[in-house]
Amino acid sequence: MDAIYIPQLTQAPERTEEIQVQEFLPNLETLTPVRGLIRIKHCGNYLEVFGKAETIITCNCNRCLQSYNHRLFINTSEIIWLEELSEQEIDLPLEREVGVDDLVETLSPQGYFEPRVWLYEQMCLEIPQRQLCDANCPGIQTANSNSNQLLDSRWASLEALKNQFPG
User: Which backbone phi and psi does 22 adopt, to 5 degrees?
Assistant: First the structure.
């Protein structure tokens, strides 16, 4: 998937470009290639991006630590505003207060849209935060042990000393 030069989208039929996806994404470990479709439509002062894709990843259960396969599926759309960044916005500090109105994605109207990066970000957002192999996962199973039974023979001397005293 190559980057798309945004002004070139205005020359495309219906100002839209569709990309069939069937590849492994860098930095996203999957068992199968990501398969799907990305549609980018130039709407004057914004891009309308639609994506539908799926793949399979391996997760580790947070309760029992067993590996299991999980199907990632996205069916999403996003509006990306096209506006030039001012010099003030380019030289921003690394940490700053951000208002709710500033939480929008923007690109330069003379820049590039990277479908691979956008798809990677959407897939990462779908990775479950709470990874459970089963809703009824009991967790790590421990052997039922008698409290008097020693698990480590190196503690035998201390156990013998402890039994000499009442109490």
Answer: -160, 80
Question: For residue 134, is it within any domain?
Answer: yes
Collapsing DSSP states into helix, strand and coil, what is residue 50?
A: strand
**Quick one: which of 143, 129, 141, 142 has its CA closest to 62?**
129
**Beta bridge mates, 80:** 47
Number of domains in the chain: 1
Do the beta carbons of residue 153 and residue 84 sit within 8 Å? no
Helix (H) / strand (E) element for 8: namely: helix 6-9
User: How many C-beta neighbours within 10 Å does residue 44 have?
Assistant: 9
First-to-final CA distance of the chain: 73
Q: Does residue 158 lie in a domain region?
A: no
User: Can you tell me the distance from the alpha carbon of 155 to that of 1, in angstroms, rounded to the nearest whole number?
Assistant: 62
Length of the chain: 167
Own/partner pairs, 88-94, CB within 8 angstroms, 24+ separation:
none
Residue pointed to by tokens 């259960």 = 61
Q: What is the pLDDT of residues 48-88, one digit of tens each?
A: 999 999 999 999 999 999 999 999 999 999 999 998 865 54
